[in-house]
Automatic annotation (TrEMBL):
It catalyses: L-cysteine + L-glutamate + ATP = gamma-L-glutamyl-L-cysteine + ADP + phosphate + H(+). Pathway: Sulfur metabolism; glutathione biosynthesis; glutathione from L-cysteine and L-glutamate: step 1/2. Its EC number is 6.3.2.2. This is Glutamate--cysteine ligase. One of its GO terms (molecular function) is ATP binding.
């Protein structure tokens, strides 16, 4: 979530005189970091997850599940609990999970207290670590409250009472929303500032239109009767009537509708900058695939949507582009027409690897020419210069009056101010000043799952995939326009079983003549130096740069240049994950090959197999995605009128059901494996 210091944030108009200064010094700060860290070598694998939680409050009498707006108190209690645990157990404070504020005042984010290492033991501790976090939060709740990991709360912004305590949306000074009170937003100063500044910079409220799911009784055309079209409190109130709210859609008008969704993120450290760039690129095409596979958000503002994912909602909810930047008016005050919101999919591959052919970067990417010149003049290669110069077409969204003139050597605030508000599917993270942390890659597209079993399974899967990519030197490149097309497909209802996605057919650096899924090239000898560990670095730079042919070359690779011709095709999710024919092993195929190369105890292997089986079964459709399960629960509820409306009662029963599933008190054999054991079983955590 980036910077979280306190201080006095400037209103948008007051921050305008400083924007250019912050951009300029942000680049100065980046250049200092670059000089310090560009040759940094030998960092080991460290990694961690981020899980976002929602706090609920159940009113059993009224059959209403509300969002409990108690982030501040719960965070404070968790903080003192952590201090307590450490002093009583004389434990290592870093072993106590860390909780952060998230954008909604009903949200928390939890991470491991210190990152996991590359050991198999740590791989096995992920789920326990996640469960422990949930348990710590639960200990702070009252009897009628719950903590759940759901991506979108179905009745956020619906008529009636959806928060505890209740607040009236007609006083929403920072969002001017028709539906949400300001109290829905975290009291942490960063969040209301971001929201107000997105609206002010854009020049209007954000307008998000999610296609409605037409059920048999949904009126056509669908004109939402719950929008207060004739409210006249804030100047933007008429926008809904004047075209911002589209028919046949669920209209959302505030940043919190998107930022208030939860997700699951993974960050891992690379041994050096080039390895980080390779891993980043390889995971770009994986972003939409995992979005579709983890789909978990089919409902918004009391209605069933025709999409299963949050991504476009959050992209539109943070869209601070002016009309000029959106191409609606000729450029006069702004420099660039910008095709995407600052929350969206990656625009550029950045690896210097020869596999990264220029034609893969095939979409229009506006960038700041002066910054680009400054970076290249400093000696930074054109790809990375363009990446940074592209991030820096955005304005800082939160300027703090006491943090403007800074020591550019000791601080990276201005760089991070822009870097951390470019919310893309992947984030390429540079070391902070004065820190032992190396180059990192963050994988950001996944939706949070109902149970920690699933959250651990997908986290471990991505971590292992990143190891397989680096140790086998895999090539996942497809033109980035195809990745963007996949992002759209990934969000469609039922995408995991209904859609096809562009994916690369040949993923090994040199294609063995008779490659079969069981014949994936073994990791280099050099990896066996770390037999019981997942640490892979250094030496693999050689085999994964596309030049070496591993002795299997069949002439298709000459000095790293592959021959022309279609290297990708449309595949189903089952094919992409589980493999297709003899040619394509699937992402699970390469992960399994990697797992087989590790020296693991039987029990550890069983656990890994359980995780991989979940991924496999979600991909082949024998288990439902969370989104499909939630949609079907709603549609088969006795009180559902087949009109797309999710009533308080339906929502109440759904939230109860999700909490019970997580605890293992309710079976869901179409969602989870039959041997799923919920958190009602006390596994002896803190
Ligand atoms: P952000 O919100 O900016 O993505 P967080 O601090 O919330 O960052 O989460 C970062 C994740 O990275 C956490 O899971 C943390 O455990 C993990 N992490 C911390 N240090 C390292 C490191 N050196 N290398 C890789 N991951 C790390
Ligand atoms: Mg993050
Ligand atoms: Mg977060
Ligand atoms: Mg975070
Ligand atoms: Mg952070
Ligand atoms: Mg978030």
């Amino acid at each position: 979530m980036g910077l979280l210091f306190m201080g006095k944030p400037l209103a948008w108009e007051d921050s305008i005189p400083y924007l250019e200064y912050i951009r300029e010094h942000g680049i100065t700060q980046f250049l200092y970091l670059w000089d310090r860290f560009k040759d940094r070598e030998g960092d080991t694998l460290l990694w961690g997850d981020e899980v976002e939680y929602m706090l609920l409050s159940f009113d059993a009498e009224a059959k209403n599940a509300k969002l409990s707006l108690h982030q501040t108190e719960i965070l404070a209690n968790l903080q003192s609990l952590a201090t307590d645990i450490c002093s009583h157990t004389r434990g290592d404070p870093t072993s106590v999970p860390t909780f952060h504020p998230e954008s909604g005042s009903y949200m928390l984010e939890g991470t491991p207290g210190s990152p996991y290492t590359g050991s198999v033991l740590d791989l096995l501790s992920v789920e326990r670590n996640m469960r422990n976090r949930r348990k710590l939060v639960r200990a702070e709740l009252m009897a009628h409250e719950a903590v759940v990991t759901i991506t979108s709360f179905p009745r956020l912004g619906s008529p009636g009472v959806f928060t505890d305590p209740y607040y009236d949306p007609s006083h929403a000074q920072s969002s001017h929303s028709l539906f949400l009170p300001d109290e829905i937003t975290s009291a942490h100063v960063r969040f209301p500032t971001l929201m107000a500044n997105i609206r002010r910079r854009r020049g209007s409220k954000v307008a998000i239109n999610v296609p409605i799911f037409f059920d048999v009784n949904t009126p056509r055309p669908f004109v939402d009767p719950t929008i207060p079209y004739d409210r006249r409190i804030f100047p933007e109130d008429p926008e809904a009537m004047n075209g911002a709210a589209l028919p046949d859609h669920i209209y959302l008008d505030a940043t919190e509708f998107g930022m208030g969704c939860s997700c699951l993120q993974i960050t891992f450290q690379a041994c050096n900058v080039d390895e980080a760039r390779r891993a980043y690129d390889a995971l770009v095409p994986v972003g939409p695939i995992m979005l579709a596979l983890t789909a978990a958000s089919p409902a918004y503002r009391g209605y069933l949507a025709d999409v299963d994912c949050r991504w476009s909602v959050i992209a539109a909810s943070t869209d601070d582009r002016t009309e000029e930047e959106r191409g609606l008016k000729p450029l006069r005050h702004n420099k660039h027409v910008i095709p995407k919101s600052r929350y969206d999919s990656v625009d550029l591959y950045i690896s210097k690897d020869l596999k990264n052919r220029p034609e893969y970067n095939d979409i229009f990417v506006p960038y700041d020419e002066d910054i680009y010149k400054r970076l290249t003049t400093h000696g930074i290669d054109t790809l990375l210069s363009k990446h940074v110069a592209h991030l820096f077409i955005r304005d800082p969204l939160a300027v703090f009056s006491d943090r403007i003139e800074l020591d550019d050597i000791a601080c990276s605030d201005h760089f991070e101010s822009i870097q951390s508000t470019n919310w893309q599917t992947l984030r390429f993270k540079i070391s902070p000043p004065k820190s032992p942390i190396g180059w990192r890659v963050e994988f950001r597209s996944m939706e949070v799952q109902i149970t920690d079993f699933e959250n651990a399974a997908f986290s471990v899967f991505i971590l292992l995939l990143s190891r397989a990519i680096l140790s086998f030197g895999l090539n996942f490149y497809v033109p980035i326009s195809k990745v963007d097309e996949n992002m759209q497909r990934a969000q469609q209802r039922g995408a995991a079983t209904q859609q096809k996605f562009f994916f690369r057919k040949r993923i090994y650096p040199a294609e063995p003549r008779h490659s079969t899924p069981s014949e994936v090239p073994a990791p280099s000898e050099r990896s066996s130096a770390t037999i019981n560990s997942l640490n892979i670095h250094g030496p693999f730079a050689d085999i994964s740069n596309g030049i070496e042919t591993n002795g299997h070359g069949d002439g298709k690779y000459v000095n790293g240049h592959e021959e022309r011709g279609d290297k990708y095709e449309e595949m189903t999710m089952a094919e992409i994950i589980n493999g297709k024919g003899n040619e394509f092993p699937g992402l699970l195929g390469v992960v399994n090959a990697y797992l087989n190369s590790l020296n693991m105890e039987f029990e550890s292997k069983q656990r890994m197999r359980a995780y991989m089986a979940l991924v496999k079964r979600r991909a082949d459709g024998s288990l439902k995605t969370c989104a499909t399960w939630i949609r079907e629960f709603i549609r088969s509820h006795p009180a559902y009128k087949h009109d797309s409306v999710i009533s308080e009662e339906i929502n109440f029963d759904l939230m109860k059901a999700l909490d019970e599933i997580e605890r293992g008190m309710r079976v869901a054999h179409d969602l989870l494996p039959t041997d799923y054991v919920g958190s009602k079983i006390d596994d002896g955590c803190l």
